[in-house]
Amino acid sequence: MKRLMCFALSLLLLTGCASAPAGQRAAAAELEADVSSTRHVEAMDTIMALSAYGSNREKALDAAEAEILRLDALLSTGKPDSEVSELNRTGTVTLSEDSKKLVNCAFSLHEETDGAFDVTVYPLMQLWGFPEKEYHLPTQEELADALARVGMDRLRLEGDTLSLDEGQEIDLGGIGKGYTSQRVMEVYRQAGVTSGLVSLGGNVQCLGTKPDGSLWRVGIQDPWKTEGEIAAVVEVEDQAVITSGGYERYFVDESTGETYCHILDPKTGWPVKSGLASVSIVSPDGMLADGLSTSLYILGLEGATQFWRDHSEQFQAIFIDNQGQIFVTEGLKDAVQADAGFTVIPQSEKSAG
To answer: Quick check: is 123 in a domain?
Structure first.
């Protein structure tokens, strides 16, 4: 890649000469489309990697970085001036266009997943100590108190005004990164980029294909191995691939050796033990994929499978269970490679039997 980039830059220098032949200028422009620029942005409690190809790549990355920082300032629970922090502090806020899109998506996901997705679990997250990494094993009394403040059915959205019930707080992080990756794709398109990628922790979203027309290859991390080792690879075009798993954030109780992951069941208040190690959602809608990766992890393989069968036109999925078995929904059967093999989940329950 370095050799190719240097060659491309040499040709680009020739395009500035009036005497450069037209064919040479065309070759330079064509080769430039294969050159990428990459940038790293620290936001939303992670390091984001952005790549864009083509002559407008630097302009696209500037705009994408600005958009990421804007959304971080708007949605962060850790920034006192954010819209979400104002809501949590005062109990009511007039939503911006972006926040309203997120809230409406949250309501829809909450309803469709029978409450598995719930942005009001923030008091529970704080109780367990996950936001500040000051971990705490709560008592039943503490859990009962926090659970009394959980429930999206108690939120009130009237026009652009969102109000919380007494003691409630929300966190839009469960769909915020997915919305952000989706917005980056829109920014790329507006800048004229036709091939690009953004990686936000476990969230990856791509624009188009690679410049040579081949599909993007996205690795699915092995939940039991060191970061960077993969269990499977999925090939995609114009899609988000968003993964949630208990291995991402957790703590171990030193007295018992018990592991507690950061994905909490809003109905019980406890870290989820669904039998799944990770869930990866593939969809053109990054915000939807983000919300579903957590929700389907909570539902477990059986519930997630049924949910996919009811909504297969919107997404596909890769599940890894606690035994290391990989399950792939039917729409991805030709797009996934895994050394250990995988089981295809068919669209029809009858064909599964």
So the answer is: yes
